[in-house]
Amino acid sequence: MLLQLFTARRMMQFIGFFLFAYTCLRAIVISITYDEAYTFLEFVLKPNWISPPANYMGANNHLLNTWLMKICYNTFGMSEFSLRFPNVLAHILYLYCSWKICNALFKSKPALFAFIIINTNPFLLDFFSLARGYGISIGLMMLSLYFLLKYISGNKIFYSLCSLIVLSFSVLANLSFIYFYFLLLFLLLLIPFYKKAVSWEIILTVLTGGTFLYFILPYIFTLDKAGAFFYGGNRDIFSETLTSLANASFYFDGDFYPQLSNVFVTIIVLILFVSIFIALKYLINKNKSDSTLFFQSICFIIIGILAGCTLQHIMLNTKLPYDRTSLYLIPLICLIVTFVLNHFQNEKIKQWLFVSASFLSALLFFHALNFSHVIAWKTNGITKTIFNKLKNEQSVYPLSIGIDFMFEPCFAYYKMLYNCHNVNYTFCINLNKTNKYFVITSLSKQNRYLNNFKTSVLINFEDHGVILYKNESYNSSPVETVPFKEDFENYKKETARNISDLKFISGKQSTICDSLDNYSRGIEIIINDTLINSNAFYFSSYFSSQNFKNNYCALVFSLENKTDGVYYWFPINVHVFGTTANWNKADYLMHLPDNVKKGDVLKIYFWNNYPEKIYVDDMSLRFLKY
Question: Which of 540, 536, 503 is nearest to 421 (CA)?
């Protein structure tokens, strides 16, 4: 018996080490995804630790994840693995706590099979390799469940508070875990009554939980008011939440096999009904064993989440959780499955069911095993490959690439990471003659914009649904017209504060912008007959800051007129051009919007809303005719 226990535990340790090595390696090699890059550019690079959730993308800021990304970025520098490191560490926490829970609840072989079932879901594993809050939340959630089990076993208030506090950090890493938090708080208030141990513990639990809710709920309501919780479904909890989890667990990119996913969802629903029946039977028979009470708690949390989300959807018209926003259901359902299987009295049937379930879980894992992408952002998996292919091309003007919107923050990230001044990009809605290449999703409706160009397919990334096109009509030698160069020396007497004594190689004084002078001196031009016939312009400038990690500055292009006011405003984070304390060069090739008119005013300037000064020098502008 001791040998069997030793063997099972050693197998669990080996499997845990293998899974951790897998997620760790993927965190190193997989291309940055849209949400990761957006978080880095919009929240990590900004000096403030809590950005006001002013717009609909505010929920992208998973607070704890963003803070840990900031620390890793400042400590280890900029790399995919550096930014993903907190979630990689969370996987160790998840593996360890699931191992402890399985050993506490089951015998040797069932514990091994339960460990496999809980740890091999490929969709769950994806998020331990990404710089998103989900992996951190899941790891902390499993630690919270372990403390809950310890509390049930020992009835010590210390473990109860630890469970609640740890789950508070889990919510900070991802706000969708707030449903779980409310249910756990209710459980921790209910269990003392159930075990007839009512005391001052309840007051302490209420104070702990209430304090966290006092601070986090206003933040959630602000995000809701801004429309930040737009990701989710509108049908029913089975069609949206459970079906999306089934598809993701099978690593389907979409609902490609609806019959199979429906069978899977049906099995899960049946298991939930069986688990409710078993939990009620234990309650009626007054079975108060530690494992029984823990099982009843998990049942209560799952049913509470599904019922609460459904009621909120019906009454408040909120979105139902969809795939990753309901990720916490995967380990909870896996725990329920293992409990139900362990309930069988016949040892042969129990062992056969455990082996079958763990074999299916392992099969799904090996079916999804890859080092190229994660299923939720599959199209982003080739961003690094395309960028590395194009970044070294030489040209007089910046290499302009037309891209689908979902690649924009990824291209900005790699432009910054590789310090590629020569690469520019425009959204596919603005595809134009300056674009030498187009990176478009094969299923995107925006492919219709390619109809205006003669193109050829360079690479078809069929597995990722992305195509790299070459613009056969591209002209590498446009006609240059009307050059402009800004000399800031002329502004010395007019506004002395905006002019810095810092000088560049030209010997002329630089302009500055900071929290007092948000806008640097810039170039302002009225579009005339000559300029309106141009297709694009090429802008270049030099800029510098002593501490870019405490600064967030944008290069801004705007167009305005007396009738419409500012009708075009396009900011670019200067971090993508360089972050050294020396002079960095900003090069940008930009197509003029189709609706530009004679008499419109083009303004180009640097904008900075933070105290750290940005120095700007040698602005130049050339209009180009293709």
Answer: 540
- Would you place residue 197 in the very low, low, confident or very high pLDDT band (cuts 50, 70, 90)? low
422 near 395, Cβ under 8 Å?
yes
Structural contact between residues 202 and 192, judged by C-beta atoms closer than 8 angstroms? yes
1: exposed, middle or buried (Cβ count in 10 Å: 0-12, 13-18, 19+): exposed
Amino acid at 313: H
Write the CB contacts of 247 (distance below 8 Å, at least 6 apart in sequence): 254, 255, 256, 261, 323
The answer to whether 122 touches 252, Cβ cutoff 8 Å, is: no
Sign of CA dihedral 377, 381, 384, 390: negative
Q: Which two tokens stand for residue 552?
A: 């967030």
Please check whether residue 475 is in contact with residue 433, taking contact to mean a CB–CB distance below 8 angstroms: yes
Torsion from C-alpha of 280, 284, 288, 290, nearest 10 degrees:
-10
Among residues 236, 295, 245, the alpha carbon closest in space to that of 265 is found at 245
Say how far apart CA 480 and CA 282 lie, in whole Å: 82
Asked if residue 294 has pLDDT above 70, the reply is yes
Q: Which amino acid is at 410?
A: C
Q: How many CA atoms lie within 13 A of 398 on its CB side?
A: 25
pLDDT bin (cut points 50, 70, 90) of residue 203 is: confident
User: pLDDT at residue 166 above 60?
Assistant: yes
> What is the pLDDT, as a whole number, of residue 292?
87
pLDDT tens column, 13-43:
999 999 999 999 999 999 999 999 999 998 9
Q: What number is the average pLDDT over the span 468-492?
A: 78
Distances (CA, A) of 525 to 397, 483, 491, 568, 594: 21, 11, 17, 15, 17
**Assigned token pair, 164:** 């609640």
Taking only the tens place, the pLDDT of each residue in 345-370 is: 788 888 899 999 999 999 999 999 99
Q: What are 287's two structure tokens?
A: 């079975």
What is the helix (H) or strand (E) element at residue 82, kind and residue range? Answer: helix 80-105
Q: Looking at residue 546, what DSSP letter applies?
A: S
- Burial (CB < 10 A; 0-12, 13-18, 19+), residue 613, is buried
Q: What is the DSSP string of 40-69?
A: IIIIISSS-SS----STTGGG--HHHHHHH
Residue pair 241/326 in contact (Cβ under 8 Å)? The answer is: yes
Identify which has the larger pLDDT, 197 or 98: 98
Asked whether residue 492 carries a pLDDT value surpassing 70, the answer given is no
Point out which residues pair with 503 in neighbouring strands: 509
